[in-house]
Design brief:
By secondary structure, the chain is an all-beta fold. The protein has one helix and 24 strands. It has one helix at residues 2-8; strands at 42-58, 60-62, 73-92, 96-115, 119-140, 143-156, 159-161, 173-175, 178-192, 203-214, 217-223, 233-254, 285-301, 303-305, 325-344, 348-367, 372-393, 396-409, 412-416, 423-427, 430-444, 455-466, 469-475, 486-507.
Length: 519
């Protein structure tokens, strides 16, 4: 349920082509004015909520001395947050908007911090804050598509490490809380809330994706009683280098200090035009798309018995040997797909689609029973789903989607995580079926003064969830332990995958040809 709530934060707007010239027109009788103008210059405040994942490369080293004891493994975290902020925008050269802003995120994005030689603890991203700039383009008078970037700071909780063996035990070591400075890059879409037949002067909604990157931090361990002198150094430290990916939706109120109130046409000078045709966009028809994106995965993982006699014999099949730890992965992918949409009841659009993602989102699969780690790679995922959207402008569709998701994973070769780093066991490749929920925004590409009939662009967020799988381990030939065949244990893996992608869309729009209004 918690993951569902987090995923639902992504169902609003982001950053196709049903060009008006390609489609049936709507007649209009010599209107006196063009479509309303919006003034985006001025101050604004915002608040909302979101969810996110982090993935962090981490190893164990001597402290002091910084001599590596283990190689890097990739840990993960997931959770939720609230956000508030303030900013100022300037509209210039017609459809361009530039701005500055500051915001804070306050919540609980937590995962695992691991000492491969001693245990695991929970590391929590408590607070992050940012100061940045954004540059956007008005794809419609009331819809801003933008990119942003700047400084990001973060505050982390510290952790208490205890044994991973079930049922757990008392805290052995602690690591300190810390903060890291870094940078972020992201983007989003903001639109007014004069939708669904409701007028909300001054109120807007924005949905924003952000990736924040921080340098590696060294976290010295200290003893917890009764394992040593309280607060005494263990001579080891855990390093931690996080990448944080978040998605949030916020309500925005615009004061518009550059005008006489909210960013509404009624506040602004009216431009006159001689009887223009108000364009109509027909979203009914087939479309194809292709693009690229990036993502993170988190996976809860433990070690359990397979019930098969082997190196380990600790109970019937399914008996847990360790408690869960949270692993992480990150990477990139390409995507292609096809779909069909139906426009109905004016601004509503429903559709079906199928797509595939092909790439390399990789991270760690860890076997604490053998103190071993291997690289697990999400190679392919594919989806079939439905979407429902609302035209926040005639050429801009904001939508949510959901459906079936399948995934194919690589399997691993597990190597000893401390010297001699020799290959020890393997886990098989596998596939998992699950479900996804997400959302995005699609808009035509008749922007920047360029006409591109039939071409659109969409940016989409997606969270996919898969059930746990048990992966039996098998000794590699000639391993330094002398083991042969099945080990008698399995590493379990329960992934959650979060992706963001941008695609070019071509709409065939078999809805008919243009109709020209005469005056």
């Amino acid at each position: 349920m918690k993951k569902l709530v987090l995923a639902l934060t992504a169902v609003a707007a982001f950053t196709g082509s049903a060009n008006a010239a390609d489609l049936p027109g709507r007649y209009t009788k010599a209107p006196a004015t063009v479509a309303p103008l919006y003034n985006w210059t001025g101050f604004y405040i915002f608040g909302g909520a979101g969810g996110g994942l982090w993935a962090a490369d981490s190893n164990l080293e001597t402290f002091p001395g910084a001599v590596a004891i283990s190689r890097d493994q990739r840990m993960g975290g997931s959770g939720w947050f609230g956000t508030v902020g303030i900013g100022h925008d300037w509209q210039f050269n017609g459809p361009w908007v530039a701005g500055i802003f500051g915001d804070g995120q306050f919540g609980d994005i937590r995962g695992s911090l691991v000492d491969v030689a001693a245990g695991e603890g929970r590391e929590k991203l408590r607070t992050s804050y940012a100061a940045g700039v954004r540059l956007g383009y008005l794809v419609a008078p009331n819809v801003l598509s933008y990119v942003n970037g700047g400084y990001s700071g973060s505050e982390w909780s510290g952790s208490s490490l205890s044994t991973l063996e079930t049922p757990g035990g008392p805290t052995r070591f602690t690591t300190p809380s810390f903060r890291r400075d870094g940078w972020f890059i992201g983007g989003g879409v903001e639109n007014n809330l004069n939708i669904f037949g409701i007028s909300a002067p001054g109120w807007f909604m924005k949905t924003e994706y952000r990736s924040a990157f921080y340098d590696r931090e060294t976290l010295p361990e200290t003893f917890a009683p009764p394992f040593g002198a309280p607060g005494g150094p263990t001579g080891r430290a855990i390093t931690f280098k996080p990448w944080v990916q978040t998605i949030s939706t916020s309500l925005v109120y615009r004061f518009n200090g550059g005008g006489t109130g909210s960013a509404m046409a009624a506040d602004l000078p009216v431009r006159y035009s001689k009887a223009p045709v108000v364009p109509a966009y027909n979203w009914t028809g087939f479309h194809i798309f292709g693009g690229a994106g990036g993502g993170l995965w988190n996976a809860d993982s433990n070690v359990q018995s397979t019930g098969v006699a082997g190196f380990f014999n600790f109970g019937p099949a399914g008996t847990a040997f360790t408690r869960d730890q949270r692993l992480g992965g990150s990477g990139w992918f390409g995507t292609v797909g096809i779909g069909y949409d139906w426009q109905f009841n004016g601004p509503w659009v429903a559709g079906i689609f199928g797509d595939g993602q092909f790439g390399d989102i990789r991270g760690s699969l860890i076997d604490p029973a053998f103190v071993a780690e291997g690289r697990e790679k999400l190679r392919t995922s594919y989806a079939a789903g439905v979407r429902l959207g609302y035209l926040v402008a005639p050429q801009v569709l904001s939508y949510v989607n959901a459906g079936y998701s399948g995934s194919e994973w690589s399997g691993t070769t597990q190597a000893f995580a401390i010297p001699p780093f020799a290959a020890l066991t393997t886990t098989p490749s596998f596939r998992r079926d699950g479900w996804f929920i997400g959302g995005g925004v699609e808009n035509n590409l008749n922007i920047f003064g360029i006409t591109a009939p039939g071409w659109f662009m969409k940016t989409e967020y997606r969270s996919a969830f898969y059930d746990r799988i048990a992966l039996p381990t098998t000794f590699v030939a000639g391993n330094f332990l002398g083991g042969v065949g099945l080990t008698g244990e399995a590493v379990t893996f329960k992934p959650w995958v979060q992706t963001i992608s941008t695609s070019l869309v071509y709409r065939f729009n078999w809805g008919g040809g243009p109709i020209v209004a005469k005056y």
